[in-house]
Amino acid sequence: MSRGRKLWILRILLIVFLFVSLNSKTGYADTAYSCENGIHEFESHIRVLNTEDTQGEAENVCVLCGYSYIEYLPATGHRFGEWETVEENAKMGIKTEKRVCLGCRRSETREVPMEKLWKVNKLDYLLSASIGGIWGYGALALWYDGLVLNWYKKNSRKTSKRRYK
């Protein structure tokens, strides 16, 4: 086969392909039935009831033509109340808390660390201890120096009285 003939065959195939693709109706099948008046009248039937944890299903059926589809209902989710303290373990420093769903009465528990009565920053503690230590040692030194000075004064009086007599 010559090269010119191959080109003519390719051109003809391209024209046929374009003609078929542009004139044919391709796409999804029409699954919606048409009612007599064009408007469906649906009746709903619950197949699976939705709960807090699981989704539900409702089947909607047209009473005129029989067309039906399934509607998925989302899970409602839990509506929990506030956390309440159930038990406190002071030795371990842990308290147990519980909350209850307002709809289904399902409960959840958790363990959280207890809050300390005195919230002291370690750096503040060290700083205040060192300042207190400085003041304490200063007072002690002054007290001790006072004792030493008083002793020295007492002894110096005794010796000075002896000298001048």
List the helices and strands and how they pair.
Elements: H1 3-23, E1 42-48, E2 56-62, E3 68-73, E4 84-89, E5 94-100, E6 107-113, H2 122-164
Antiparallel strand pairs: 1-2, 2-3, 4-5, 5-6
Strand order of the largest sheet: 1-2-3
Radius of gyration from the alpha-carbon trace, in angstroms: 48 Å
Number of helices: 2
Gap between N and C termini = 154 Å
Largest sheet: 3 strands, antiparallel
The residue fraction in helices comes out at 25-40%
Please tell me what the overall shape is: elongated
Mean pLDDT over the residues: 76
Order of helix and strand elements from N to C terminus: HEEEEEEH
Give the DSSP E fraction (strand runs of 2 or more residues): 15-25%
Low-confidence stretches: none
Strand tally, please? 6
* Structural class by secondary-structure content: alpha+beta
